[in-house]
Structure formats: structure tokens, C-alpha cells
Design brief:
This protein is of the alpha/beta class. It has eight helices and seven strands. The structure holds S-adenosylmethionine. InterPro entries: Cation-dep_OMT, SAM-dependent_MTases_sf, SAM_O-MeTrfase. GO terms for molecular function: methyltransferase activity.
Length: 216
């Protein structure tokens, strides 16, 4: 998690979302820090609540996640699905997703999650071309975002949502001197979404920037 909001407000923000993090999520966050010390890859507690709320609001039955890591965001979203709902989780790491599997099992959502270990662009291209996806969360390698967006928006049902994480890149999107691969890719996808007549969108200053895209 990158801080673009005043860090002094963080505790306050985290104290004012509900439900509070339960034991499973707390243990998962702690094990993730032991496995990958100092990592900022995992989404925050409030972002987990936000994603779960969006899954519920869209009455999603089919969710796709690009970038699963140790499974925190997938767990939050899977809990918000109905029992027959399904979440397709895309990642390239067996090592990190092995941690995820244990916590999904413990939380009782293992059966709802279909983990696909492969580059996400390949996995997305194997999904049916129909508009069946209700909700998608993109949180993987930033250079892949333009491709992930295109593959997902084509499969999103009208009224469905895509949330893209880290779309402010710690503020570097507005630094004209920053030509790094990931910032260039994020600017590209931000511009493509804004100009896309298939959707309406808003870039929210939640954590490191979360763009919400709704298909018309
Ligand atoms: C920021 S982390 C995801 C964090 C996760 N959403 C969470 O809440 O814990 C990014 C993940 O993307 C995965 N990744 C990187 N490149 C990828 C690719 N080409 N295809 C699929 N996953 C990829 C990494 O292995 C890593 O687990």
C-alpha cells in the first residue's frame, strides 16, 4: 500500500471501516509480512472492505482477479459472493498463492476460488468471449494493465465493474520526468479508459488510486 493520503490519517481511516479485520485476515496479513518482509503488495484492510462492498453492490456471481499474491483481496471478495459464486484468481506465483490457498480453506471460501497459475493475459484470453464477468479487480504487473483492461472490458456485462489498483503510482503519473515502464503503462490505461465510449469511470484517491470503470 502506498500513501498518497496524509499518513497521519491512516489509523483513523482504518478505524472507520467495518467489518473490522477478523482473525483469518489478521493472520494472513501477519504471515504475508513474515514471508515477504516489508512488502506493500497486499491491499489494505479498508480496500478489502471496499472491494467486498462493490462485489455485493453489483450482485456479482463471476469475479475475475488479476494479481492474487497471498490471497487477501481474493478472500475479501470471495466472502462477498453468494455460495454458488465463482472467483477466477490469476497469478504467476505458486509460492505466494500456496499461502493464499491455506487461508481460503480456513475461511471456508476455497470452493468458490478457481486459481489459475499462468501469465494473466494468457488466462484471460482463455475465458469465454461473452459478456459474463460481473466484477474484476486488476492488481498485478503494471505494464500489463492496458492488456488486462482490454481483455476484461470485452467480457464485462453491461452494468458490471472493473476496479484497477495503483492508478496514481504514488503521484508519479503527474511527474513529466517519470518515464518508467510502469508509470507509462498506467498513464496509457488511465487515458484509454477516459476515452473509452463503452464505459464511464472515476479515479478515486483511495490508497494509491483506485479507478472504477462501469460498462454502459
Ligand atoms: C500487488 S500483488 C497482488 C496483491 C493482492 N491483490 C493482495 O491483495 O494481496 C501483484 C501480484 O501480481 C502477480 N503477477 C505479476 N505479474 C503477473 C502476470 N504477468 N500474470 C499474473 N500475475 C502476475 C505477482 O505474482 C503478485 O502476486
Amino acid at each position: 500500500m502506498t500513501h498518497i493520503v496524509n499518513p497521519a490519517l491512516d489509523d483513523y481511516l482504518l478505524a472507520h471501516c467495518s467489518p473490522a479485520e477478523d482473525e483469518v485476515l489478521r493472520d494472513l496479513a501477519a504471515e504475508t509480512q513474515r514471508a515477504v518482509p516489508g512488502t506493500t503488495m497486499q491491499i489494505s484492510q479498508d480496500e478489502g472492505v471496499f472491494l467486498a462492498m462493490l462485489v455485493g453492490l453489483t450482485r456479482a456471481r463471476l469475479v475475475v482477479e488479476v494479481g492474487t499474491f497471498t490471497g487477501y483481496s481474493a478472500l475479501c471478495m470471495a466472502r462477498a459472493l453468494p455460495a454458488e459464486g465463482r472467483l477466477i484468481a490469476c497469478d504467476v506465483s505458486e509460492e505466494w498463492t500456496d499461502i493464499a490457498r491455506r487461508y481460503w480453506e480456513r475461511a471456508g471460501v476455497f470452493e468458490r476460488i478457481d486459481l489459475r497459475i499462468a501469465p494473466a493475459a494468457e488466462t484471460l484470453r482463455t475465458l469465454p468471449a461473452e459478456e459474463t464477468v460481473d466484477f474484476a479487480f486488476i492488481d498485478a504487473d503494471k505494464s500489463g494493465y492496458p492488456v488486462y483492461y482490454e481483455e476484461l472490458v470485452a467480457r464485462l456485462r453491461p452494468g458490471g465493474l472493473i476496479a484497477l489498483d495503483n492508478t496514481l503510482q504514488g503521484g508519479r503519473v503527474v511527474d513529466p520526468a517519470d518515464h518508467s515502464e510502469q508509470v507509462v503503462a498506467i498513464r496509457e490505461v488511465n487515458d484509454a479508459i477516459t476515452a473509452d465510449p463503452r464505459v464511464e469511470s472515476v479515479l478515486l484517491p483511495v490508497r494509491d488510486g483506485v479507478t472504477l470503470v462501469r460498462k454502459r
